[in-house]
Amino acid sequence: MPEKPKIGFYWCGSCGGCEESVVDLAMDLVMVVDAVDIVFFPVGMDFKREDVEAMPDGALAACFINGCIRTSEQEEMAGLLRRKSGALIAYGSCASSGGIPGLANQFSREQILAFVYGASPSTHNEAGTRPETQVCVNGHALTLPALRERVRSLDQVVDVDYYLPGCPPTPQLLKQAVVALLEGKLPEKGTVLAPDVALCEQCPRSETKPSDLKYTEFRRPHLTKMDPTKCFLAQGIVCMGPATRGGCEAQCIVGNMPCSGCFGPTSRVRDQGAKMMSHLAASVAAQTPEETRKILSGIPDPVGTLYRYSLPKSLLRGVPPAKTKEANPS
Amino acid sequence: MQDQANTETGATPSWEPRIVAFFCNWCTYTAADLAGVSRMRYAPNVRVIRVMCTGRVDPQFVLDAFAKGADGVLIGGCHPGDCHYIEGNYKALRRVEFLRRVLDDLGIEPERLRLEWISASEGDRVRVAVNGLTETVRALGPLDLRARHTKADLEVHVGVEPHMNLEVAAHA
Fold first, then answer.
1. What is the pLDDT of residue B169?
2. pLDDT at B170
3. Which residue of A39, A143, A188, A292 has the fewest CB atoms within a 10 Å radius of its CB?
4. What's the rounded Cα separation, in Å, for the pair A198 and B127?
5. Is this prediction's ipTM beyond 0.85?
6. Which class would CATH give B19-144?
7. Chain A contact for B130 (CB, 8 A cutoff)
8. pLDDT band for position A232 (50/70/90)?
9. Shortest Cα distance from B127 to chain A (angstroms)?
C-alpha cells in the first residue's frame, strides 16, 4: 500500500475555533483521515514537537497553521513547520491577516502588560508580578516564551504558500483544499483558497441593495431592530460585505448579523479597511466636513470595525512602532 | 558629519519632509502648472501625482504613501460645485474626513493629510498649500514608517533552537 500523504495542523495565537472547524468536517473527516496521515495536531492527537523535529525536511505534504504570531515560541514553531512542510497554509483570519488578536497592534506591549497585570479593574496584583521569560522557583529555572512587541500574520514571519481565510474557515473550504492537495491541483502559490468575489455577490439579500446608497445615519446592530430580509447597508448598518471576500456561505447574514469582514479582501484590494472606508465615506449624504463628521460619528470605533481581522496586514499595520525602542523589560 | 537628531520629533538637520500630492487634472494640476509658468517658488518637497479627479483618490493611495515613506499627503481638487464629474470632490472631502479620524486613532497626526480646493487659475494657492503643509510636517518631524517597521521586525526569530523548556529540563 502506498504511503499516504502526511499533513499537520498547528495553532499559534488563536482561540481554538479553527480547530473546531476541522472537527466540523464531520463525516468528511473520515474521508480526510482515510486519505491522509495526520501526523501533528496538538489539539486532537498526542504528537509532540520532538516528533516533528525528528521528521526529515519536507516530510509533511501540507501543514495548516492557524493563529497569529506574537511569541518567540510561535515564531519557532512556524519556522520548524515551514521547514518540514511542502505546502504551508495560513488557516483562518489570524494566520492570514492577524485576526482579532491583531487589534492589539493599536497599543504597545508595555501598555498591554501595564493594563492586564495592573490597571485593569479585575486585577489584584500588588506585587506587580509580570510574566518573565525566565524565573527561578525553589531552585528550578522555569521559562516562558517571549512576548513580542507586535502581532504578526504567519506570512510576516515565514513564507506562506496558501491562505484559507475565515473566523473560522468553513469545513467546505477546508475539504476543497484537502481534495485539491490530494489531487495535486493546488493553484498558483500565494492564492487565497476561497472565491475571488465580494460577499455582496453571494449575499442572499443582494437584490435589496440599492445601487446608490446614501447614509444619513449609521446604526449599530445591538441598538437596532434589524429587518431580516433587507440589505444591512440599506438599513444604515455597517456590513463589510462590499470589501470582503465571499466563500463563507454568508453565514452571518443568514443569522441576521452584518458581515464583520473575516474573509479579508479580494485579490484586487490591498487594504480591506481602507476600501471599506472609501465606500462608507463616499456614500455619506453630506457636503460639509461638519455634517460628514456628525454622520460618521455613528461608527464609534472605525479601526475595530474596518480592520477587525486585518490590522497587522493593513498598510499601516497598526499604531507605528515607537521611534526609539523602549527599554526591553524582559 | 554626524546628524544630531531632535529628541522631540526625531528629525535630523539634513531631514526634509517628503510630501506626496494628488492633484486633480481639471483644477489643481493646472494651477500648479500656472504657478510654474508664473515663476512662483514653492517648497521642493512635494511629489505631484496627477489624477483625473480627487474622487479617484482611494484611501489606499494615501495610506500606501505614508507606508512607503511619505511624511505628508496633500490632495488638491476643485471647489465645491465645480467638479468636472459633478461630485467627485465631495467624495474626496468625506473620505479625507474619515481618513483623518482613522489616522488619529492609529497614532498618526491627522494634520499630515490635507485637502485643499484650488481652481485652475489659483496658482498662488498651490504655493501657499504646498509651503503650508511642508512647514506643518516639518514641525511634526519625520513619520518614517518603513524604517520603524523594519526596525521593529528585527525582533522576529524563526530559527529553530531546541525548545528553551526542554533545554532547562535537561540541565535540571
1. 40
2. 42
3. A188
4. 42
5. yes
6. alpha beta
7. no
8. very high
9. 24
